[in-house]
Hints:
With 319 residues, the chain is α/β, with parallel strands linked by helices.
Amino acid sequence: MLIFSLDQNTDFAQALSAELDQPIAPHEERIFPDGERKLRPLVDPRGADVYVIQSLHGGSIESPHDKLCSLLMFIATLREHGTGQVTAVVPYLAYARKDRQTKPYDPVSLRYVAQMFEAVGTDQVIVLEVHNVAAFQNAFRCMTQHIPVHRAFHAVAKEAAAKGPIAVASPDPGGVKRAQLWREFLEEQLARPVGFAMVDKRRSAGVLSSMNLVAGDVEGATVLLLDDLIASGDTMLRAATALHEAGARSVIACAAHGLFIDPASSVLLDDRIAQVVISDSVPPFRVPDGSGLRKKMHVASSAPLFADALRQSHGAWRR
């Protein structure tokens, strides 16, 4: 097994390396004066089972386009030099939200991204909590693994459950299945009933609307509000408001990917959100150190979940 990380300084890459007891393989990256890049492995990949880590979120320097292009070019280079199998380990998959046409002449960006991965010879793509699992699986023709994020949040849920009744809620109709799976998992692990709720939400042309309607019973419960990502924080705050009006004792906002686009750092400070829980798929670099949001934020590691996926993949390939 060879593991490359195109961003070696992330906590996620280092944590995954430690979980697998496998060092990050060296690679060279050169940036030319006009912005073009050259990436190459510094070890022989011939015949190897190779895993390339790159989370496709935008940053202060690189855009999702930059990161996607670097990842595709590096996978193509590995293929050029005879690697046995190449897996893209993509904690956050850019463009996964655009998985269907909702307006005339809309793109289906997720499918186009899948086609690019396939075109460079990617054997498998492993991701954490995409927007729509069915759309993700249908977009790709190569192998895929989808890792649900709720298992990374079990310690938070267990702590909440020790204080009284809990419920799992989706902030919109589209996330109902995601929340139901966590509820079923918790009922099995805790051996007790866990409530469930869904908050109504509509979005058109980027504008949110809601009548604060809640389907389900959250009276007196700590609600684990689960979504795939947090961008501006508006969806979480609207849902938390509706849940409190429906009788929730407390609301913990949980999401796989914390993008924290402005004004999230101020929106999520609202007292109706007791805690913000995210995974390490996207470093919370947009949230200032020492800020109020940092103080109420908990980052759960997804590295053990990815390590299990890589072990299973590597074992299957060796057989």
